[in-house]
Each structure stands twice: as structure tokens, then as C-alpha cells.
Amino acid sequence: AHVERIRDELLEVLAPVVPREPGVPFFSTVTGEWIESAQTDGAYWYTNLRQTVQLEPAVRALVASGHGAFLEMSPHPVLTVPVGETVEAAGVEAVVTGTLRRGQGGLARFYTSLGEAWTRGVAVDWAPAFTPYTPRRVELPTYAFQRDRYWLELPKTSAAVADPVDEAFWKSVEDGDLEGFARTLGIEDQESLGAVVPALSSWRRGRRERSTLDSWRYRIAWRPRPAQAAPAPGAPAPALDGTWLVAVPESHQDDTLVTAALDALHTAGARTVRLTVPDSAQRGELAGRLLADLPADVTPDGVLSLLAVNTGASDHSPGVSYGLLGSMALVQALDDAAIPGRLWCLTRGAVSTGEGDHAPDPAQAAVWGLARVIGLDAPDRCGGLVDLPAGDTESAVHLALALLTPQTGEDGGRETEFAVRGGGVSVRRMIRTPLPTSARDDDTWRPRGTVLVTGGTGALGSQVARSLAEGGAEHLILTSRRGPDAPGASELCDELTALGCRVTVAACDVADREALAALLAQVPDTAPLTAVVHTAGAVETARPLGDLAPEDAVAVMHAKVLGAQNLHELLSGHPLDAFVLFSSGAGVWGNGGQAPYAAANAHLDALAEQRRARGLPATSIAWGAWAGGGMVDEEVGEQLLRRGVPAMAPELAVRALAGAATGRESTLVVADIRWDRFLPAYCAHGHRPLIDEVPEVRELLAARDAARPDTQDDGADAATALLAELAALPEAKRRRRLVDLIRTHVGAVLGHGPSGTVKPGRAFRDMGFDSLTAVELRNRLSGVFGTRLSATIVFDHPTPNALADHLEAELLPEASGPATDLPAGLQQLEAAYRQASDPAARQALTASLRTLLDTWAASEEPEEATVDEELLAASDEDMFDLIDRELGIS
Predict the structure, then answer these.
(1) Among 318, 312, 311, which residue's Cα sits nearest to residue 513?
(2) CATH number for the domain harbouring residue 798
């Protein structure tokens, strides 16, 4: 009682000075007005359950009274959408957000929601969040001019103003608003529109999806070589008076292509050094032969590889040819032996230029895929690809020789892929190919009976399986190496069964021909096999070609290539509605660091064309990235996004599959490409004519040409000017200039924005560099300095500072020589400073030297104060370096 009396007395005393915590006003969606908590009794909640909740009127009333923030307190927001629509319809701007999310019920999610509200102008009291951490204010640098923007810029909108009536019409359709739709049309009878509005809504949604899919669809076409680049008809082959290194497969030395090429080179005046390559040649063996067979005083003007004609299956895998592995070993050996010269690959029947041409050879087509990536990873090494017809080789060889020394365009671009046919030369182009306007939804492939999906429990296969089950497949056979034990296989099976489809999940490696044949024999007669979708394949981690062993290439190609080959052979006599192969854009335009993967996909594209030529159904789809993984790993996916190839929504991608499976194209590209980003990245070392016929590319090139000055130095002149500029700078400024150049390109490669975010002393690996980005940085720096740099330069010199030291020593040996010798007395002082291990001793020595300098300066005659010329031209970074040194924090 005594304690209670004291408490009451204290409350009475403190009542005037302690504010009472205000209650939270309550606007009821039952009564549509503000109410007191005492009114929420049992009758109130009974009414709440029985009558319609007045959410929209309540929100409108709150908006009208000036409330501008609506926060939904719930485990998962469900009302933010209707609240947001109501606020928008009222014609005002307000904040509408939630608190927690499904599966995210902790403080981290709650604080994130608070942060989202705060960034939109809602006042938040952050003090309770920081109470356990005893926060304190700290001073920030006063560098107000050092600011970086990290916000995404909104795309510029068109100047055209949309018709508000048109917008209102389609909004009423999409919202299913019969009243608004009838009002727009001036029709009183709303009931008669009950079936029209849903149909129109579905039609509009379908048109939007169709437009998106059309923008994703491309195919490869062959065009006559531009007249200005082609030799006159009947003109003799150009004189090749240099030395050419010719790589010849040991088992095909008498092949007509080999003998015709060697004879033609001799006739054209070239000196040839022949390198005979055994079937099982390794890079070390080839490098040794190169160093032994090539005279020490001879530098090849070019390298001609005829290894692709060796299409025999290698000992590693029946799906990987000796010609492909030999071509890979040759490139590695040339680099290992430091032998320069552009590499040209001569093939016979590797590509098909269109109707009437022969079916392509998949094994040789794989070499084309490999070479495309070489052109990206090592642009100075890549010469090009020339394909001869399968028939008249001898006469075509002479025409092919005219292509071995193409002229480089003003922008560094040049043709690199040629097909010699019928006395003429064609070049390769990627063009947009939308679905024909006459195509209807019922023209797409509709699955029936049994459909086999290889890799069916993976990220891609599961998406395809869902689409097939929804589309009408009676029975799905999903294969994977682990079968029912694969992660998520049981859940996927239950999901597909719920859609009314019978599912068989089989542990079968499709690269195992006998296991695959046994599985196909088990398909029931009641639901015969009608289609195959081959999604299986290893996802490759990007690595430079120099880091790969033959086993690495085989591991990437084995399941994808051999599995497709086994399916083709085992089902060649079986009637099918569709035979779909999952290829990749890496085989079409090449992805840096993915040479074996590109080769595997080029092989699949050629296999599809080969099947079509034989009258069999086949479609190879070269996909971009899929959201949710499967096509590429996370590292390559990030690279593709940065280069303008974002991931596609799987729901739309499977629709593209259905439209392609019964189309006329045996090969098709389906990729979401943002050309404004893709073009600069893809053409970083000179324009690549492959994409010249894409409308967006034409517009971008036209805009670039219009903005280009009348006179512009080419890359070589720019590199020469840069080196001359660096050589003329004082040593300290030269090194800072080099470091700044490196930091700028590091920031561009990693997408970090301004170079100020790249620390000069931080290791490249710690910044997030991998093999792929290391090659990209090497290529950028090679272009800037006009010289070829090692593919491992980033790892050999692990920081921007170390790389700058290396580049200075390599590119400017005279300018980076030893500095002028110091007088003997100063040398002793420098040695004493370096030997002092105690920081206090070093500081004392520094202070003594500064005192001595001040004394000398005071004894000199005063001069008129002037601004140092170098200080006047100093950059912000130079000024900060000076300040750091003066403050002793450098």
C-alpha cells in the first residue's frame, strides 16, 4: 500500500510535465468515418464480417483529407495494389508501401520497408533502430564536388503525346471495367459487352507478347560480299609474298583441300612453312615443333589452319572431332611459342548459305564456333573463317586466297566470315525475323502423346515441361543423370501431374547411346513419342582459351553434342512432330571466354540444318539468357546483362519455343538484346559487320557517324599519340596518368562507373575480377596502347599500381629509365630513411629535413609569388595526392 501511494503521488506530481502518449486515430472501413477504440466492440466486428468492406471509399476520404502515405501492416502486402490504384484514380501522388513480405518477417525486411518509405518522403524516427549500437555523428569530407550517381536513369520518353481517349479506352479494357468501356463507346447496354471486354483484353495482351517475341527473333542470312570489297571477276589472286605457316592434319595430308591450298599459296608467291599436326597433338608438343620448324629469322605474315577437315571422332568423345581439339591446341601453341600472325581457318562444307546449298558438316561448324570466340578474346590473333563448297574445291581455293588479307575499315572493323559459292563470295549477317503476319496461335506446335525432355529436371527443362503439360502433352519423359534423386524432381513431378499429365522421371545420360536406346524402347504404344526437346548440357564457367585443357572442352561438349547426335541417329526413322535443340547465342556471335561452349552450340545448329536437309523435323534455337538460370551461370549472366543481353522471362521464352518448333527456320536466335549496350561492347575492337542489318544497329551507327568529326585518327594513330604524350610527361605525372587510364578501364569492365571508385592499390581479384573480365580488360588496354598484351597480365600484375609499373617499363623503356642520380649526401639521407624501421624515427628524420629546407628557403632572396604551372594543370586526384602527402597519410 505504501508503494502504491508513492506511485500515485509521483504520477500526480509529474502529470503536468510528462506528456501523455497520443492514441492512434482509427478510420473505419466499416463505418466510413473516424471512430474511437471503444466503438470496436463485438457488434462492430460482427458487422465487419457481414457487410462489404469499404476500402476504396475509405482511401478516397483519407486522400481528400490530405493524407499522403499509406503503409500496410501485414505479413505480406495484399492491399497495396488496390490502394495504389485508388490513389492514382484520385489524381494525386502518395506513398503506398508495406512492411513485411512472405518469407521475410524479420527486422531486416522491416527496416528495408522503412527505408523505402523514407526515400519517398515519409518521416521515420530511426533512433530506436540504432539504440543498441550507441551511434554518434562523424564528420564527412567536404569534397562536395566529388559525387557519383548510382541511380538508374529513366529512359527518355518520346515527344509524342498519347491520346487520352485512347489510353482510357485500353485501360478500361485491361481493367475489365464494363462501365468505363461502355461510357467510352457511348453504349448504354453494358450486358452485351460482357464477352467483348475479356476478348479484347486477351487480344491486347497477346499482341504485346507477340511484339516482344518478334523483337527477340533473329536468324542468320548470307549476303553477297559488298562490291567495294570484292575483287573484279576473273582477277588474279593477290600476291602473297610473305611467309605463311600452314597447319595440316597428319592423317589428311593428301586431302584435296590440303593439296589445293598449298599449291595455291605457292602459285600466289607465298613462302610456306608446313606444320604437320598429329590427331592427338597437345599444345606443348605443337609449341615445340613450331619453335623447331620455324626459322629463327622468319616471322609469319599469317597462319592458315586446315585442321578442320579432320572430322574424325577423337579419343576423348565421339562428339568432339580431332579437328576441333587440334585447332584449340594450335591457338594455344602459337601463344605459348610467342609466334605472331593472324589465324585463318579454311573449311569445306561447314556452313549452309541457304536453300539449294549442301547440308553443313557439324564437326567443321564447331570449329567456326570456336574461332568466333577467339575473335573476341584475342582480336589480334583472329584472321577469319573461309568455307569452301563441298564439291569443286580446287577452283574455289584461288578465290579464297583473295580473302586472306582483307582491308580493315576506318573504325577497325572488317569481315571475318566468308562462304565461297558458285564463283562468288558471301558474308554472314544476323537479321531480325518476326513471325509472319499470317501466323496464328493455332500455327504453333501443340504437344501430344509422349514428349521427351532431356535435362528435364533442370532449370530449363522444368520450365519447358510445365509449358508442355499445360499445352496438352499426355506423357512427359524427363531425363537427367540423377533422375528422381535430382533436386526438386519430386515436387516438379507432383506439379506436372496436377496439370493432368503423366510423368516419368528417368536417370539416363543421353550421351550414353545404349541407355538412351533402352529408355526410348519403353515408350508406350498408347502414347507414342511425338517430340524431343534437348535442353541437356553443361553450363560453362567462362575461361580464356589458354587456360583450357582438352578434357575441359570435352566436358562442356560431351552431353550437349553427343546427346543430340544420339537422339538424331536413334530417332532418324521415327515420325516426330518436333525435334528441338537448345543452342546458345555463344555459337552465333561468340561469348568471351566460352570457346568450347560456342563450338558445341555451333555443332547443334549445323545438326539441325543437316536434319532439315534430309527432310526430318529439326529446330535449333540459339537462346539468350533465361531468368532463373540454366543457359549460363551467374558470372556469365552478369556479363551478358552488362553487355546488353538481359535474361528473358521463361514464360515468354517457352512461347517462342512453341512458335519456332513448327516454323520454316531450322536455326533461330531468340534473345532479348539491348543494342545500345550490346553494340559498343561487341565492337570494342572494331565494328563487326555481322549485325549491320539489324534496324536498331543501323540507327545507332548512323547517329555515331553523324556525331563523328570529319577528321578522326584511327586506333593506331591514337595509340601512338598516347605513348608520345606519356613519354613527354614528368615521371610522377606519367605514372599517375597510367594509373588513371587503368582505373578508368577497370571501372568500365566491372561496371563501377567513375574511376574514383577503383583503388590503385587494391588487388584485381578483390575487386571481383575473374578470367572473363581479365580478358576484357586486357583487350581494352591492348586497343588503347596499340600493342598485344598477355591474357594473364591482370593476374601477373595484380593491382592497378603494379600494372602501371609494368606497362611503363614495357611501353616506355627509355622514359621509365633510372632517375638522375642524387648527390652523395642526399643518397646517405635516403638510405638512412629506408633503413629506419621505427615510424617515430622516420617521422623525426622527416621533421628534421623539413626544418632544414625551411632554413635554406629563408636564406634565399624572396621572389615574386607565382602559381606553379604544374599545380595549375593538376587534376583533382593530383591535388588529393598532394594533400595526403603533406598530411602524412599517403
Answers:
(1) 318
(2) 1.10.1200.10
* Count of the separate structural domains present in the chain: 7
Residues 168 and 252 both lie in one domain: no
Side-chain-side CA neighbours of 674 within 13 Å: the count stands at 14
- The answer to the question of residue 344 being in a domain is yes
Residues 455 and 308 reside in one and the same domain: no
Ranges of beta strands (E only) in 321-410 are 342-348, 382-388
pLDDT at res. 703: 87
Of the chain, the percentage scoring pLDDT greater than 70 comes to 80
This model's pTM is above 0.85: no
662 and 791 assigned to the same domain: no
Structural domain contains residue 198? yes
Distances (CA, A) of 293 to 254, 275, 280, 308, 704: 21, 8, 19, 22, 47
Rounded CA separation 629/634 (Å): 7
What is the spatial distance between Cα 586 and Cα 664, in angstroms, rounded to a whole number?
Answer: 22
| DSSP code, position 626 | B
Spatial contact of 465 and 459, defined as CB atoms under 8 Å apart: no
What crossing angle do the helices spanning 650-661 and 196-216 adopt, rounded to 10°?
Answer: 80
User: What grid cell was written down for 630?
Assistant: 540454366
Q: What is the CATH number of the domain that holds 334?
A: 3.40.50.11460
Q: Return the HEC string of 312-331.
A: CECCCCCCCEHHHHHHHHHH
The continuous run of DSSP H or E covering 223 comes out as strand 217-224
Each residue's pLDDT tens digit, 782-835:
878 888 787 678 878 889 999 999 998 888 877 655 444 556 666 666 666 656
Strands of 590-663 (E only): list them: 619-623
Evaluate if residue 76 carries a pLDDT over 80. yes
With a cut of 50, say whether residue 479 has pLDDT above it: yes
Confirm if 517 and 523 have CB atoms less than 8 A apart.
Answer: no
Partners of 529 in the beta sheet?
A: 450
Under DSSP, is residue 410 helix (H, G, I), strand (E, B) or coil?
coil
3-state secondary structure of 417: strand
Alpha-carbon span 277 to 253, nearest angstrom:
10
One-letter amino acid for residue 189 of the chain: D
437 domain-assigned: no
User: Range of 730's domain?
Assistant: 715-811
Whole-number Å distance between alpha carbons of 223 and 218: 15
The lowest-confidence range among 19-28, 399-408, 672-681 is: 19-28
DSSP-based three-state secondary structure for 98: strand
Cα separation, 345 vs 337, whole angstroms: 19
Residues 634 and 738 in one domain: no
Question: 14-25: string of b/e by CB count within 10 Å (b at 16+)?
Answer: eeeeeeeeeeee
Tell me the helices (H) and strands (E) count for the chain, helix number first: 34, 19
Q: Is the pLDDT of residue 168 over 80?
A: no
Average pLDDT along the chain:
82
Q: What is the per-residue pLDDT across 125-167, written as a single tens digit (0 to 9) for each?
A: 888 888 777 777 877 766 666 566 555 554 444 444 556 767 7
Query: How do strand 382-388 and strand 417-421 relate by DSSP bridges?
Result: parallel
Q: Using an 8 Å Cβ cutoff, are 593 and 609 in contact?
A: no
Packing angle of the helix pair 771-785, 362-377 (nearest 10 deg): 60
Percent of the chain with pLDDT over 90: 38
Specify whether 590 is located in the same domain as 699: no
pLDDT band at 307 (very low <50, low <70, confident <90, very high): very high
Contact present, 308 and 347 (Cβ < 8 Å)? yes
DSSP letter for each residue of 392-405: -HHHHHHHHHTTSS
Of 479, 653, 473, 495, nearest to 566 by C-alpha is: 479
